[in-house]
Amino acid sequence: MKSYFFLAFNNLKRRKLRAWLTILGIFIGIAAVVSLISLGQGLQAFINEQFEQVGGDKILIQSKTFAPPGSVTEKELLLTKDDLKVVLDVSGVEDAEGALIRTGLAINRKEQEIVFINGLNEKYLEIFGDIDAVEIVEGRQLRDGDRSKIVVGYNHVFGNLWDKDVGVGRDIEIKGKEFEIIGVLKKQGNPGDDNSIWIEKETFKEIFNTGDDEGVIIVKTRAGFNPERVAENIAKKLRNARNEREGEETFSVQSFSQLLETFTDIFAVIQAVFVGIAAISLIVGGVGIMNTMYTSVLERTKEIGTMKAIGAKNSDIFKIFLFESGLLGFVGGVIGVFIGIIIGKGIEYIATIQLGSPFIKAVFGLPLIIGALAFSFFVGAISGVLPAMQATKLKPAEALRYE
Question: What percentage of the chain has pLDDT greater than the value 70?
Answer without folding.
Answer: 82
